[in-house]
Amino acid sequence: MKAVVFNGPEDMELQELETPEIKKGEILLKVANSAICGTDVRIYTGKKTKDVRTPSIIGHETVGEIVEIGEGVKNYEQGQRVGIIPIISCQHCDACLNGLENACENRQAIGYEFDGGFAEYVKIPSEAVEKGNLLNIPDHVDFSEAVITEPLACCINGLRKSNVKLNDTVVVIGAGPIGLMHVQLAKIAGAGKVYVSEIVDHRRQKAMDAGADGVVNPETESLQEKIKEYTQGKGADVVVMAIGVAGLVNECASLLKKCGTLNLFAGFTKGEWSQIDPNAIHYNEINVVGTTASTRQDNRNAMSLIANGKINTDVITTPGYSLETIEAAINDVMDGSGMKSVLNIN
Ligand SMILES: [Zn+2]
Ligand SMILES: [Zn+2]
């Protein structure tokens, strides 16, 4: 099979490898589409190193068809179209038992500890098969739509942590694919107004296409002034950071009204620190929350929202890449020229 092997930062190579052999309890998935995650970009640039092996096959936003089933596998069949839920949780640590399997203390993941989806085939390990980490794709849902299930699930987890309520004003920082998912989910959750800050011109347009009520270009106008103006001086109920820029945390907190919630949703670069005014948190009783990954139930909800036609997937994705053009796919995410790059694999 063809696979892209990650050897280290900025070193990826298309190779011909043996197609994985399937043993008891395992499943072989023929990959239809894989998408580039912001985390893949951070792995590629060396900004994320935790749990990343070299050499390995990364990629965790993957959909495809089951082509082989190991002995003893229940609940799945050959020919079934499925999406991967990458996080394999242990189900017995404190985090898992407290309903936070996304943050499992013993978590393993496809695309990290196990080889992932930037290949023609992926082996689904038995622990993932047992835990139901393959999600059925309804017949009427295209692979190209279902491929955003996992990142959408992470945003659903983020929405829960942000506690968006009816008629809230939400500010999303960054109109990349994740930002646009937050815009759409906030609207579905009942937000009254959603505003988006983004420096790339075509992405601000995409934010409006995704349902935003207003956009700000923080390079040419003051984000704080603009949000004040939009909210008649009140500030936002929720601010979601969909870009991992540590230096922006304090400014984002300053956009909130009293008791508002700041969600540090994006991953940040290891070693970079933020300064924050503790009195802004103290006097304004601001909540600062984070979000990591998603639960299996979040993934089910994400697939269901897509199947119900609630998510505009077209504004989120840029199709047409392949294993051969994976570096272009990554670069186009990195410089903001595309949205979420989607590879056609089989
Ligand atoms: Zn992802
Ligand atoms: Zn656990």
TrEMBL record:
Keywords: Metal-binding, Oxidoreductase, Zinc. Its cofactor is Zn(2+). InterPro entries: ADH-like_C, ADH-like_N, ADH_Zn_CS, ER, GroES-like_sf, NAD(P)-bd_dom_sf, Zn_alcohol_dh. It holds the Pfam family ADH_zinc_N. One of its GO terms (molecular function) is oxidoreductase activity. The keyword Cytoplasm does not apply. Residues 8-343 form the Enoyl reductase (ER) domain. It comes from the Bacteria. Belongs to the zinc-containing alcohol dehydrogenase family. This is Threonine dehydrogenase. It comes from Salibacterium salarium. The lineage of its organism: Bacteria, Bacillati, Bacillota, Bacilli, Bacillales.
